[in-house]
Amino acid sequence: MRVFILVIFVSFWGFTNFSVKASDKDVYGRNETEEFNPMDAIIDHISDSHYWHILSYTNKDGQLAEIAIPLPVIIYFRGRLSIFLSGEFNHGTRVVEKGGNYFVLYHDKVYVTGINGNLDLNEDGNPNNERPLDFSITKNVGSMWLSAFFLLWIFIYVARRYENHPSTPKGVQSLLEPIILFVRDDIAVAQIGENKARKFMPYLLTLFFFIWINNLIGLIPIFPGGSNLSGNISFTMMLALITFLITNINGSRNYWRHLFWTPGIPVWVRFFLIPVEFIGLFTKPFALMIRLFANITAGHIIILSLVSLIFVMKTIYIAPVSILLSLVMFMLELLVAVLQAYIFTLLSALFIGLAIQEEH
């Protein structure tokens, strides 16, 4: 019961943040009287940012203000590396001069401008200005580091506990042990085989817990949550690429022979299968990348869309229904968070198992 009350409280806090930001002047100081656009609000919440938002509030002048942590901006342009905090942009209202170059922040992207900071917008409203190489520590990067430090801390703690008390798991050990055994027995051993599963267990365990923790952080609507790391296609692409490299580097001779010269079929058919099998090399990691990205992003969009109904319909009577449905989706997303971690890890183990299997 206490957990349920806590979930409701945290959800209402996050929804209040959303409603304040959506119903007044935005943090960039633009479009004060413009009609609420749910698409803009949703994209703003699921996109990466150079700020880590903590709280929005209305100041004494009736304008929307926010408390946010400025993050490091690291950009490279015309042979010069510039490092400064995103607070210098003042949420996109200030031009920043570094090394004779002028930069502005527009929709959380850095563009090169003149001294006046004017942007050359095309018909679609996108700037034609040059963009520097951006290596900034954004909110998603900060969230990734946070989850990595948390995993290191918890597993180092558990490992030391096992060294001192190997036969009596307590506390966090009791929580993690069945999960680790599940990944070992039902994923690694089942897909790779008992003899070779041990070699890939560190990667599979890291993959499972890393995705799961980041999915959960993305569901926390208040600081230090609120990021959408698993809904960032660059993040899912790198995870899929690592699985792709591990799979093919460890591929057996039998794996490569079946890939490029499948035995047991007529020679003329093999020439048709070779391009199909070659394309299959890349469709597997591509499917991994898209599946995780799409499922996590869809969950965030649905929850935010349900909250947006209050502002689109402009009536408080829809609020109880909207919030109730959002809470139901939030609880479902808790299941999706672990389910997507399981599916990604399972398919990675399956691809590795198929690549290293011996000839029968």
Could you give the topology of this structure?
Blueprint: H1 2-23, H2 38-46, E1 51-58, E2 64-70, E3 72-77, E4 80-85, E5 96-98, E6 101-106, E7 109-113, E8 133-134, H3 139-164, H4 172-192, H5 194-219, H6 233-249, H7 253-260, H8 267-313, H9 319-356
Helix pairs in contact: 2-8, 3-5, 4-5, 4-9, 5-9, 6-8, 6-9, 8-9
How many beta-strand segments?
A: 8
Task: Return Rg in Å.
Answer: 24 Å
Order of helices and strands: HHEEEEEEEEHHHHHHH
Categorize the overall geometry.
globular
Average pLDDT rating: 81
Helix content: 55-70%
What is the helix tally? 9
Strand order of the largest sheet: 4-3-8
Please tag this protein with its features.
9 helices, 3-stranded antiparallel beta sheet, disordered N terminus, globular, mainly alpha, 2 domains, 360 residues
Structure, described:
The chain has 360 residues and is mostly helical. Helix 4 (172-192) packs across helix 9 (319-356) and helix 6 (233-249) packs parallel to helix 9. The strands form 3 sheets. Strands 4-3-8 form a 3-stranded antiparallel sheet, with no helix packed on it. A 3-stranded antiparallel sheet has the order 5-6-7, with no helix packed on it. The longest helix has 47 residues, at 267-313. The protein contains 9 helices and 8 strands. It has 2 domains: 72-136, no CATH class; 141-356, no CATH class. It has helices at residues 2-23, 38-46, 139-164, 172-192, 194-219, 233-249, 253-260, 267-313, 319-356, and strands at 51-58, 64-70, 72-77, 80-85, 96-98, 101-106, 109-113, 133-134.
